[in-house]
User: Fold this.
Amino acid sequence: MKDTQPEARRQLADVVVERIERLIVDGVLKQGQTLPSERRLTEKLGVSRTALREGLKILRARGLIETSQGKGSFVAKLSAEPAQAPMMHLLGSQPRTLYDLLEVREMMEAESARLAALRGTPADYILITRRYEEMVAANSRDTDASTHARLDHAFHLAISEASHNPVLVHTLATLNDLMLSSVFASVNNLYHREAQKRVIDRQHARLYNAVTGKLPEQARRAASQHIKSVRENFAEIEQEEQRLVRSTLRLEGWT
Assistant:
């Protein structure tokens, strides 16, 4: 009589793999995040500890999770850093690419805002509200530009995650470092200018209200106008700096 137990264990291990891969794709389990304990996972997935360990073994072989002695298993770094690093360096080292990045942000974030308004769940809107309130609360404190940038970025990231489009979310995540650099440039150059800061605050409020109010077209326009406005402000700042350089050179007798 054929022993069916190994086949059954493999099938259960495949269930473990499929469920955990889906959680990673959906952004429920994030890069670097520690997985729940074996006991919790067996309860949540409804499998035996043997099947769970087989599934985790497959995930480790695929490079999706790593296990550290005494710390448990956690989601591995998912991006292929060696292949991406040269391009990331080139893009990050050229100031002009900031405008290219903002064009990409406008397209992608406008669509993610529209989808977030269409597909967002009550739980998504709670998370978006938390990120928005943290960002607003920072305005009343003596907050440095780096913290402002991270709070701003977290707000936009929460909206993208509410789009429930894993490809869109992970594409934005791939650009995380460059995205954060552009947001940092935004707050560093614009937040200390009162007029521009008020505009940014109004734009964020408009975006927040449209997404959580489930108004997809308004959300799309609000996100697009926000990024477009930032890009226009950068262009004006750059022109101001160029005028300052030219006038200084004339003053010093270089022309």
Remarks:
- The chain has two domains: 5-75, 81-251.
- The domain at 5-75 is CATH 1.10.10.10 (Arc Repressor Mutant, subunit A).
- The first strand starts at residue 65 and ends at 68.
